[in-house]
Model the fold of this input.
Amino acid sequence: MIVDSSILSRHDQSFDLIVIGGGAAGLTLAQAVGSKGLRVLLLEAGGPRETREGRAALSGELAAPAVHPALDLYRTRALGGTSRLWGGRCIPLDRIDFDRRDWIGKSGWPVGYEEIAAYYPAAMTAAEAGANEFDPASVFAGSRSELAAGLDGDLVRTTIERFSRPTDFWRRFGIELASSNRIYVLPHTRLLSIRLTSNGSVVEKLVVADRAGRQFLVRASTYVLALGGLEATRVLLASRDVKPGGIGNDFDQLGRYYMSHFCANGGTLDMSSSPAALAFDYQRDSEGIYLRRRLWLTETSQRLFRLPNITFRTHLPDPGDPAHRNAILSAMFLSKSFVQKEYAAKFSEGMITRVDYLRHARNIAVQPAALSRFAAMWLRRRILTRRKLPSVVLASADHRYPLEFHAEQLPNSDSRVTLSERRDADDVPRLKVDWRVLDADVEGIVRAHRLLKREVERTGIGHLSVDEAALSSCIRDRSIVGGHHIGTTRMSVTPQHGVVDPDCRVHGVDNLFIASSSVMPTSGQANPTLTILALALRLADHLHMRSRSTAAGSVDTSRRAAALR
Done:
């Protein structure tokens, strides 16, 4: 049920679990443990809609603003969390991501691939993304499975990505949670501090504030931080009443190893010699799920050439360059130009000299039928339906396609998140992000492009042109995916090497757990949402078993005490 702070203050409420965060992880976990009989309180700082004040609370400092997006750009305070913003891409991690790779420092997970993969089917169901099947030979049985016919082999292979509706998880679970008599949802409630017992081994209570700024305490047997990677880190760093360096930071690991993904156009794939060989568009499976092919450098490639995990997919030409002569791209660019303030400012200063409105207008004028057909398709498949076409995909008139890469970032202890001197309206310190790129990041991605180029041209299906100097500059300066906040509370066997143990419990604190991308020791090539859901569902099972063990232990103790009387 949905409650407010007055209900909690008027009644003595006892909870098995408090979940902090009403995004994809928190809502999925609360639904799962509530269905198993636990009594849950879910705290969310926002409400049904995002507010200006909520967005302002997420801002912070950047050590290098030119290479990292503003901290409030890809985050939100509202029920549903960033699932209100995501594009719906669902991809599992690969087996190699869990292995210790001697060419990647601090790689390897303290749990095996099978431990997490067992929860991917349920995670796919939660995300409304269809079957947990990513082998194109199975998915496209009876039709062509390869992205580029003739390219697949030991070193390069076609894989697929699946897409959610995209699912807003508050819409997904909100009605069920609102009608539950075991799950209490408390919106507009901000977590200010986690209070530990004097020896620091147990969470005793949470200090929270309601919409009016009134502070109060909430308590439970167990607590889960189900926040985004940055916010989970901030809460732990800012909770310093017993631990001066923050909770889970006895060995200075909290906030370190901050990773995202590198993503940009790294080259141009020319398929003019065999245009029919390329299958670049979306397809739908029997359930209506959108799928798309992409290229993956296989585990064999990664081990043989000591590469990071990386994938490639065809992309659109730059819509801002009217030389593409495409009415749809010109219309896309002009519509965005008129609504984004930064364009207007730069035009007034004469800074963007290559943008020629007349040439864009001419592109539109000479192709009105194509634009009309596209608009009708977009309305039908994107606007007027719940399961939305994920993005614009267009055939290239000259059969040349920008090739977008999506690559893991290597763990780096100097890439980190700390507290700023600045504070928010609740007097909680804001974050300061110092995101860093290693030479090995740059070199690995460049060598991956070099290998793909070799394979494309060896098989004779086309030509891949790569400007390695420009690619290197791009990786260093502007290719981060700003919404993937990974690694800052990394999973480890011992507290000397991370923040949470293999069960996602904070080292040294018996009843505090984290369900977030921040626990992932490596990022892999995959967008993290599906793995976040798998981790949340795995944690739900663990907490259920833990509660049963605790209850059984209490019963046994009572029986022994009765026998002695």
In short: The chain has 16 helices and 19 strands.
